[in-house]
Specification:
The chain is an alpha+beta fold and about 450 residues long. It is about 35% helix and about 20% strand. It is built from 14 helices and 18 strands. A six-stranded mixed beta sheet has the order 1-2-7-3-8-16. It has a four-stranded antiparallel beta sheet with strand order 11-12-10-13, covered by helices on one side. A hairpin with a 2-residue loop joins strand 1 and strand 2. Helix 1 runs antiparallel to helix 14, helix 5 crosses helix 14 and helix 8 crosses helix 9. The longest helix is centred in the middle third of the chain and has 22 residues. The N terminus is likely disordered.
């Protein structure tokens, strides 16, 4: 469903003041609801290394509690369950008619906590507050944002106002492993709107940036093969006059050679890959995992037979993914031609996952509506226009909302520097500010009337 030309009136100052005051009055509730959700573990059961059956049900438990909140603000409730035990939550608030519809979207699944003893307060799900920060896994990514969206609608209700367009609140599963087919995409099969706001943490580089674009992401596995022999004859492999590959080849060293080659490509990307909403050099080839050794047993007494590198590749949203793949494969092949062994035993490359970019033009009405609401909340004099619009450092469900024909913008409390980290937190004042922006945006986008 594309953007429409339905006009919305400028919000009167008294209405703005009333709604912002209502959000302020809801601060304690925003915090307490966020704490409740943080204390319900909802680790994505498909996260690598997780016990699926042990983690299954956490997402649903969170959404069952959130459903009570949605009912309180007048929503009709729908659980969309594409995968058993993993229920998405939709709260639909029917408008009075004549306005644009709007989706407030967030995901309820979180990443694993790692070593619980490393966390502040000794508990990854503490929900403790210190120095104006709310701590716990999911506080920033992104239960706080989901709660702020719901309480923005509650503030509108308490202000004696009713939206003209339909409001759809979504708390979806599966985002952390790109299981969109059981999460946001499953919900999009049933629910569409004229626009959407995803409450992912939209910093860095600045808090509460308005974010219309995300990069593309590839997961690539690259494997080099070697030739095993006894480690005591390494001199034959590396010394002048040695018999070299006739005796053995270290796959690990060949893997490191390719890693260094791709590091050179990454440096080139610093010049060749850019986008006006991303800082220079953002697009990278990240070697996140390296495993190598003899087949069957990882001991140092044999020359390694394999070396596998797992890459996260972040590419500019305006580029075609097939061109990116081709560039990387061609670069690896060219580097391999300079090595006698690799020339005959090319590295194996496999692309396991592609998370597509999200692109909504800055001048699209949904983006401009979010920016306008943010300016009203912050005061135009406090907004640095040259920093207001930013690219999202990572990826999120906005890509799949866009793919479903729902133009989307990202705006939310917290920072990606805290998401997935030990001692994850979200600043409480950002939760409140975000809720204010969501509320004013809903009024402007959907239209409103007095009850």
């Amino acid at each position: 469903m594309g953007a429409t030309s339905i006009a919305t009136s400028k919000l009167p100052a008294d209405i703005v003041g009333k709604v912002l005051a209502a959000v302020e009055d809801l601060q304690d509730r925003i915090v307490s609801l966020s704490v409740e959700l943080i204390r319900i573990p909802s680790v994505n059961p498909k996260y690598p290394g997780m016990d699926y059956q042990k983690e299954l049900g956490g997402e649903t438990a969170c959404n069952q509690r959130l459903a009570e909140v949605y009912r309180e603000i007048g929503c009709d409730i729908d659980f969309v369950e594409k995968e058993p035990g993993r229920a998405n939550l939709v709260g639909r608030l029917k408008g009075s008619g004549g306005g644009r519809s709007l989706i407030f979207n967030g995901h309820i699944d979180v990443v694993p906590v790692g070593n619980a003893a490393d966390w502040k307060f000794g508990d990854p799900y503490s929900g403790e507050i210190e120095d104006g920060k709310l701590y716990g896994r999911g506080s920033c990514d992104m239960k706080g944002g989901v709660v702020a969206q719901s309480q923005a609608i509650e503030a509108i209700r308490r202000s004696g106002l009713r939206l003209k367009g339909d409001m759809i609140l979504e708390s979806v599963v599966g985002e952390e492993t790109m299981s969109h087919e059981v999460g946001v995409s499953a919900v999009c099969e049933k629910y569409k709107a004229h626009g959407a706001v995803v409450s992912e943490a939209s910093a860095p580089p600045v808090p509460l940036a308005v974010v219309p674009v995300t990069p593309g992401l590839l997961w690539m596995t690259l494997t080099c093969r070697g030739k095993a022999t006894h480690a005591s004859v390494r001199d034959e492999l590396i010394r002048a006059g040695g018999r070299g590959a006739e005796v053995g080849v270290s796959a690990i060293e060949k893997g490191v050679y390719i890693l260094q080659a791709l590091r050179n490509l990454e440096e080139q990307w610093g010049q060749s890959k850019s986008h006006p909403l991303f800082k220079p050099g953002h697009f990278t080839l990240h070697p996140g995992v390296i495993v190598g050794g003899p087949s069957g047993v990882l001991i140092p007494f044999l020359v390694s037979q394999f070396c596998t590198l797992e890459y996260a590749i972040w590419y500019p949203p305006q580029e075609d993914v097939e061109d990116i793949k081709r560039e990387i494969v061609d670069y690896v092949k060219a580097a391999a031609q300079l090595d006698p062994w690799l020339r005959e035993h090319l590295p194996e490359i496999k692309f396991n996952l592609h998370w597509p970019p999200a692109v909504t033009p800055v001048d699209h009405p949904i983006v401009q509506a979010c920016a306008a609401a943010h300016r009203k909340v912050m005061g135009a004099e406090n907004v640095k226009e040259n920093l207001l619009f930013q690219g999202f450092a990572a990826v999120c469900d906005a890509a799949f909302l866009n793919a479903a024909g729902i133009p989307s913008v990202i705006y939310g409390p917290g920072s990606l520097l805290q998401a997935h980290a030990v001692d994850e937190f979200v600043p409480i004042h950002e939760l409140v500010t975000a809720a204010k922006t969501y509320a004013l945006m809903a009024l402007e986008w959907c239209g409103w009337e007095l009850v």
